[in-house]
């Protein structure tokens, strides 16, 4: 039965919140563990459905998973004996594509269905395949199942045609046990990529340059044990910062790496939000109605403004005085949230990859359908600032990347109810 969130409008987020581990690092770190035959411990994992699904997949492949606490797992990978992850589970999350790189690296073979995931427009994996082929893998697609096989993976010089987080990480996973040296150029520089590289190196890999345009990997024979603490989730942090700015409340966001939020902090300051920045915290100061300014936002790969906070920024800009422009440069069609926001009275005009937002008009509560993770989270913010009640269906999309979102917002003083399907 589909669940939904019931939210009354005109609520302010107030107080402080500790940020969880980064989903987009954790969903790569767990598959990366398959590259060792020893044991690893991973801490600061977010409690979200993508992580639960991935641990189910690891267990089916033969890993022994021990729950050490609510946010940490012990994994014994010595018993992993399959390179065919269960299709029923793989189809539930896009990040299952990381199983390609890790199982190819471990077994020289992997059979896996094409990845599922959010509908943000076409989400090809041609660059992933380009990297695997360059490393010596034969790639076939049969009845929707990718079959990759390599007698021996050999290092290669790979130039990515497009900056891709997934391809960067996936090729890195396949290369750490390959024979010889791999150079990957035009890579993505997201903090999550650096986090995965640090985990691989903790297990004994030799990865250099993560976070820059070029990653160099010297293949090693085998990996060992390691302990890893996942970095904080900059997108979850940005979600609560933008919620505070939009609702006009004062919120202290703790256990973050402010550097990872540079583009978000700069843009919030530009629209008139007061912020104090500490070593591992950001304080969003209380702001009165009508003080937000319009702005132009362009999403780009890191360190540009993150595409994953584009929907949230769009909601914020409905409160700004004047007209703003958001240009989505990463995904072809990451604008499905616009039609839902229009049901609330948002004045947004889409032209190609740019959306024009006419700010300063009150939103009113409506029945909304979440269709992807971040769009769904932006509807929570829209519901909090609008007049009247909002129902958000498709909560399962939000649960993929936000831990118990109603409890997280409740800890900031706002009431959100999760009710059974309607
Ligand atoms: C990762 O997706 C994240 N997901 C996304 O977060 C994030 O929005 C995205 O990176 C960009 O930062 C995970 O980490 C699990 P890409 P990914 O490959 O790897 C094109 C969230 O909400 N492309 O960097 O799929 C692609 O179509 C999710 O947490 C190719 O053309 O993104 C897109 O236009 C949503 N060929 C662009 O590159 C390829 O082989 C960037 O995609 C790969 C990608």
Hetero groups: ligand EPZ
Q: Helices and strands: which structural class?
A: alpha+beta
The CATH H-level homologous superfamily of the largest domain: Enolpyruvate transferase domain
Number of domains: 2
Q: Which residues sit in consecutive blocks of at least 5 with pLDDT less than 50?
A: none
Short description:
This protein has 422 residues and is an alpha+beta fold. The protein is built from 14 helices and 23 strands.
Structure write-up:
The chain has 422 residues and is α+β, with helices and mostly antiparallel strands. The chain has two domains: 4-20 and 232-419, Enolpyruvate transferase domain (UDP-n-acetylglucosamine1-carboxyvinyl-transferase, Chain, Alpha-beta prism), CATH 3.65.10.10; 23-229, Enolpyruvate transferase domain (UDP-n-acetylglucosamine1-carboxyvinyl-transferase, Chain). Helices cover 31% and strands 24% of the residues. The protein is built from 14 helices and 23 strands. α1 (23-32) packs parallel to α2, α4 runs parallel beside α6 (165-175) and α10 (310-317) packs parallel to α12. 51% of the residues are buried. The chain binds ligand EPZ.
């Amino acid at each position: 039965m589909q669940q939904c969130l019931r939210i009354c409008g005109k609520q302010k987020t107030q107080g402080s919140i500790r940020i969880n581990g980064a989903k987009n690092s954790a969903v790569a770190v767990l598959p990366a563990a398959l590259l060792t035959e020893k044991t690893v411990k991973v801490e600061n994992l977010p409690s979200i459905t993508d992580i639960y699904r991935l641990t189910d997949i690891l267990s089916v492949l033969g890993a022994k998973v021990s729950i050490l606490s609510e946010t940490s797992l012990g994994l014994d990978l010595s018993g992993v004996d399959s390179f065919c992850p269960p299709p029923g589970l793989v189809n539930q999350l896009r990040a299952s594509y990381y199983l390609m790189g890790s199982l190819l690296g471990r077994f020289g073979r992997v059979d896996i269905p094409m990845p599922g995931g959010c509908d943000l427009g076409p989400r090809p994996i041609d660059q992933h395949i380009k990297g695997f082929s360059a490393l010596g893998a034969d790639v076939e697609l049969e009845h929707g199942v990718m079959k990759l096989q390599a007698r021996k993976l050999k290092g290669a010089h790979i130039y990515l045609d497009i900056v891709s987080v997934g391809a960067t990480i996936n090729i890195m996973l396949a290369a750490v046990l390959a024979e010889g040296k791999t150079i990957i150029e035009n890579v993505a520089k997201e903090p999550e990529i650096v986090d995965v590289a640090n985990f691989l190196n903790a297990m004994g890999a030799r990865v250099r340059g993560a976070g820059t345009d070029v990653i160099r990997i010297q293949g090693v024979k085998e990996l060992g044990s390691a302990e890893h603490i996942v970095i904080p989730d900059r997108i979850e942090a940005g979600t609560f910062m933008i919620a505070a700015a939009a609702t006009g409340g004062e919120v202290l966001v703790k256990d973050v790496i402010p550097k990872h939020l540079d583009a978000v902090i700069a843009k919030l300051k530009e629209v008139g939000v007061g912020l104090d920045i500490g070593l591992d915290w950001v304080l969003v100061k209380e702001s009165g109605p009508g003080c937000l300014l319009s702005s132009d936002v362009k999403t780009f790969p890191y360190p540009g403004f993150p595409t994953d906070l584009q929907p949230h920024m769009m909601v914020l800009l409905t409160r700004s005085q004047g007209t703003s422009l958001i240009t989505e440069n990463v995904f072809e069609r990451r604008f499905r949230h616009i039609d839902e926001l229009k049901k609330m009275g948002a004045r947004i005009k889409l032209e190609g990859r740019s959306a024009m937002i006419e700010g300063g008009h009150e939103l009113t509560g409506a029945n909304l359908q979440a269709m992807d993770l971040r769009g769904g989270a932006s509807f929570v913010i829209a519901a909090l600032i609008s007049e009247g009640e909002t129902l958000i269906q498709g909560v399962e999309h939000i649960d993929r990347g936000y831990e118990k979102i109603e409890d997280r917002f409740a800890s900031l003083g706002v009431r959100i109810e999760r009710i059974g399907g309607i």
